Amino acid sequence: LAAGCTDQSVRDTGAEKDGVSGQHASAHPLSVIPLPEDIAYEAGKPFQVTNAWRIGGHNETVTAFKRIMENSPFDFQPDTTDTPEILFQLAETGLGYEGYKLEARDGKITVEADAAAGLYYGAVTLWQILTPLNGTEVVTLTPMTITDRPRFGWRGLMLDEGRHFQGEDFVKRMLDWMSLHKFNRFQWHLVDDQGWRLEIKKYPELTAKGAWRVPAGAASRANIDPETGEPKKIGGFYTQEQIRDIVAYAAERHIMIIPEIGLPGHSQAPTAVYPQFGMFDAPRAVSADWGIFKDTYNLEDHTFAYLEDVLREVMDLFPSPYVHIGGDEVQKDLWANDPRTQELMADKGIKDVEEIQSYFTRHFDGFLNEHGRTLIGWDEILEGGDIHQSSIVMSWRGEAGGIEAAKEGHEVIMSPWPMMYLDMHQSLSTREPTGRPDRTSLVPLKRLYDYDPVPNELTPDQVALIKGAQGNIWTEHMRTNDHVMHMTFPRASAIAETVWSRRDKDFDGFVGRLPAQLARYDSLGIRYADVAFEVQA
Ligand code: TNX
């Protein structure tokens, strides 16, 4: 185990089972994931936390803590006196808005933080302390002080709902679970070639038609709807009302939702519905296949006006200061061979097709800035050159794009393939469900855990531009909620530790703390991948 996390959370039964006694006897780790910055154990009598304890202080956190504890053996009641055993309070801690201090001694636990976010994370840590492996409704604690704050401000997961729509209930559960790992950014991939998932009032066909596709193999009889005689379509979308509700739900859990509206590529669904914005003359369908397609937006003024309209509604729905515009895998062939595009390029002063991508990026960066927002894009937005300094680069084709961006002074989020790609298999087990066909790039827990988002070659100023890191859940091969859970957990625990804990965290310590975390997963209904433990590369 890592030095700071040697276990002192002594449980009575644990001590007996180990055949030893005394406060340092039982080797149950505190099992806090992500590992806190510092845990200092103190001399003094161990004490018991029981169900008779009451919670008080900062109202919002009391409510949140009660909710978090619902899946535990404890049912603490809110305090009606001035002396709750568990107290959450705002106070100057100097630990930043997400940091907190947790003190446990003399039959009392106090969590202090500068802001509500810090108190929330203190509550999450306390939930973990009170749910050790084989925990019961009585937990014995050694006096201690935990001082904690995150290493990075951007601790993200991305969910691709363009490929497979997972739905509101599942997204809310994901947000719950993310917050229990102290993640604070949810990038919502709502648009792709295979589906448009977000109601836009001005363009109702985007969801009426663009949210539905005829799945591959639809010609088989099983796929024919007996009532209409037509192939059954699959898909789904969120109404604006649902979006607002989910955004508020996330905010209560201190998670910012960043919408991703992909452009100019990955746009087969919207341009199939509104071909006047695309490059194809012949009618196209919402894609039922995976890969990279030629569909892009065109350079017509009405296309930019449409995209601005869409982004206006998007900004109205999402208070996030960031909007992700995609920008990845843009196929330039149709632009290159189209006389009308050459004409429009000449009008707009675009010299070659490579520059079309950066033209889009600059245009929408400017548009978003006018509305007080900042653009994020995948690392291809660096192609074509000359994008605004304020654009943030998400590095996915390895770290090269992120390194280049930091050297050019852009802020960066690291989410390199294959490490941070949760569609990669995690083992060679025959019990792995189908995933991205590439089995040569396994991402077992250890490989992911050992990834560090700060490349050695950067100067301190450039390192400061690395906002954090993100795991991406691409869902081409994940049709069901269960499948998404399998690919995401327990790997999300490893990512959480990478983005929250100190750089010198260690894998063995993490593995020691994992069993209690998996037991929590069970009580939360998270169907994690147990195959993760079959092969450790
Ligand atoms: C590349 S990552 C993509 C996605 C795919 C993913 C599959 C990125 C910006 N583009 O469209 O879903 O690979 O792993």
Automatic annotation (TrEMBL):
UniProt record, GO biological process: carbohydrate metabolic process; glycosaminoglycan metabolic process
Domain named Beta-hexosaminidase bacterial type N-terminal: residues: 31-148
Gene Ontology cellular component list: membrane
Hydrolase listed as a keyword: yes
Domain Glycoside hydrolase family 20 catalytic, first and last residues per copy: 152-502
Broad class of enzyme this protein falls into: hydrolase
Entry GO MF terms: beta-N-acetylhexosaminidase activity
Key words, A-Z: Glycosidase, Hydrolase
EC number(s) stated in the UniProt entry for this protein: 3.2.1.52
Lineage top rank: taxon: Bacteria
Entry annotated with the keyword Hydrolase: yes
Active-site residues from the entry: E329 (proton donor)
Catalyzed reactions: Hydrolysis of terminal non-reducing N-acetyl-D-hexosamine residues in N-acetyl-beta-D-hexosaminides
Family recorded in the similarity comment: Belongs to the glycosyl hydrolase 20 family.
Protein name: beta-N-acetylhexosaminidase
Whole-protein coverage range: 14 to 550 of 780
